[in-house]
Design a protein that fits this description.
41% of the residues lie in helices and 21% in strands. It is α/β, with parallel strands linked by helices. The chain has a single domain, classed as 3-Layer(aba) Sandwich (Rossmann fold). The protein has a five-stranded parallel β-sheet, with helices on both faces. It starts with a strand and ends with a helix. 30% of the residues are buried.
């Protein structure tokens, strides 16, 4: 079964994303920051990751840089999800290894289209 890791310090965002992604047949794991997400990825690398930028302990940018260094860390498709909308921020996230960028707030249609773009639909 396909797996998805939801990394966001907001439990509400994780809950909403789970509802949207459930229609695509994913199993889920959750992390409230990048440090917890890295622990999960070290033991069970997901197919996809929905990743917030601004989180306590370890932010999304630091997480993705560490993820891409792990064995198999080049495999998950990472959807960077944030309120950061400046072009330099988007370029930074993509340069660090994000596969796609989603602006908050997002809806099911936007998320589904991004999943299709990265081959996770």
């Amino acid at each position: 079964m396909k797996s998805f890791l939801l990394v966001d310090d907001s439990a509400i965002i994780r809950k909403l994303a789970k509802r949207m992604l459930a229609k695509h047949g994913y199993e889920f794991s959750e992390a409230e920051n990048g440090a917890v997400a890295l622990m999960i990825c070290r033991t069970d690398m997901p197919n996809g990751i929905l990743l917030d930028w601004n989180m306590p302990v370890m932010d999304g940018l630091a997480f993705i840089r560490e993820l891409r260094r792990l064995p198999g860390g080049d495999q998950p498709k990472v959807l960077f999800c944030t309120t950061e909308c400046e072009m330099d921020k988007i370029e930074t996230a993509m340069g660090a290894g994000a596969d796609e960028f989603i602006m908050k707030p997002f809806d099911e249609e936007i998320l589904s289209s991004k999943l299709e773009l990265v081959g996770l639909a």
